[in-house]
UniProtKB/TrEMBL annotation:
<dbReference type="InterPro" id="IPR003749">
    <property type="entry name" value="ThiS/MoaD-like"/>
</dbReference>
<protein>
    <recommendedName>
        <fullName>MoaD/ThiS family protein</fullName>
    </recommendedName>
</protein>
<dbReference type="InterPro" id="IPR012675">
    <property type="entry name" value="Beta-grasp_dom_sf"/>
</dbReference>
<dbReference type="InterPro" id="IPR016155">
    <property type="entry name" value="Mopterin_synth/thiamin_S_b"/>
</dbReference>
<dbReference type="Pfam" id="PF02597">
    <property type="entry name" value="ThiS"/>
</dbReference>
């Protein structure tokens, strides 16, 4: 039984830089339950791409490391910093992964 359209959202996750290299593709289209949070999406990404953990995703798999962020629908002015906020159906999340070192 498939979920009713109102019970789910479809988003595109675009990868840049190191995230694109690890994912092996520039973007994926994913369906999530309506109300999914950015934190839950990060947990899902950690499961799908475990090599991102510790490099792009925090070790606890609940947030991105400080130098990485989601940009929503190409709007640099509105990055997703609140992990308990939710994307909307049709949103395009760009995972900007900035490699840092020291």
């Amino acid at each position: 039984m498939s979920a009713l359209p109102s019970d789910s959202i479809r988003i595109t996750i675009e990868f840049t830089n190191l995230a694109k290299y690890i994912a092996g593709k520039p973007a994926i289209e994913v369906e999530f339950p309506r109300g999914v949070t950015f934190g839950q999406i990060i947990e899902w990404l950690a499961e799908q791409y475990p090599d991102m953990v510790g490099i792009i995703i925090q070790e606890d798999r609940k947030a991105l490391l400080n130098s990485n962020l989601f940009i929503i629908n190409g709007e640099m002015a509105q990055p997703a910093f609140q992990m308990d906020d939710s994307p909307q159906d049709g949103d395009r999340l760009t995972l900007v992964a900035v490699a840092t070192g020291g």
